Amino acid sequence: MQRNRRLLVCRVAFLLTLGFALAACGGDSSENSNADASENNSSDANVDSNREGYQWRKSLTTLEINPDSDPSVNGNMEIDPAEVEVQFTTVLAVRPNNDSGEEEEVPVLDGTVRIGYGEEGATLDEDFEWIELTHQGEGVYSGSARGVAEVYRATAEAPGIKPAINTVSSPPIARILSPVHGESYPRRRALPISFEPIDSGTIVEALLNGQMLSRGTSTAEREALSISAAWLQDAADNQAIGIKLRGGSFAVRGDGQSYLEIIVLREVNVNIR
């Protein structure tokens, strides 16, 4: 009887000791995990906000106006600017300093990108209506809005970096005069592309199925845009002939740099015989 009682006491003592040991181990693990998580969160927060001395490597904003994405529209049609959807894309990245290489670039994950809509003559921030773009990851911010402004302003901000800002006037939405949507054209002759208006502030590219084949920068070059017969020789019957108008402005503000580019795409579908 006494022997059984001693065995029972020993077993209870062993179980109590094991329980205390497990509790102690669990407590240490929890505390260490919380401490590690706190350190990691603090480190992650500092990655984006602690940028003393960093320089903008890129603050590139692209506005794409593509009315012909609507199946009911083609490049020969006049377009109401108020009905067109505009796509905005901004890419933000920084470098530790101006001497840093491309391998040291860091995407800006905690930036704020705003696009301002303004009427002709807009100069102050108060003259613009603003929308904010959404971060998509890897420093890419995007958004869209309906209606084309006469003046755009793009601003990019991030902790520890001087703001980047740029303002540019929007080019008109051109209308292709020729070729005519749905018509047929010979493949053995160059296919001229004429459009209006010919805006002095834009570069115009001639497109065959989205591929740029020629470019016009001067007024004479813009008026002489065409798709050469050499490119049409191997083309299928149904082809998309288009123009891409590029306008923009590069600006430097303090240590920041920014570029705002506006792209207008127009396109007609024709038959090549």
Write up this protein.
By secondary structure, the protein is of the alpha+beta class. Residues 1-47 have low confidence and may be disordered. The strands form four sheets. Strands 1, 2, 3, 6, 7, 11, 14, 15, 17 and 18 form a ten-stranded mixed beta sheet that branches. The radius of gyration is 31 Å and the shape is elongated. It folds into three domains: 1-49; 55-172 and 251-261, Immunoglobulin-like (Sandwich); 175-243, no CATH class. The chain is built from three helices and 18 strands. Helix content is 21%, strand content 45%.
List the helices and strands and how they pair.
Elements: H1 2-49, E1 55-65, E2 85-95, E3 106-107, E4 112-118, E5 128-132, E6 134-137, E7 140-146, E8 151-158, E9 161-169, E10 175-178, E11 184-185, E12 191-192, E13 194-196, E14 203-208, E15 211-216, H2 219-223, E16 226-227, H3 229-232, E17 238-253, E18 256-272
Parallel strand pairs: 1-18, 11-18
Antiparallel strand pairs: 1-2, 2-3, 2-7, 4-5, 4-8, 6-7, 8-9, 10-13, 12-16, 14-15, 14-17, 17-18
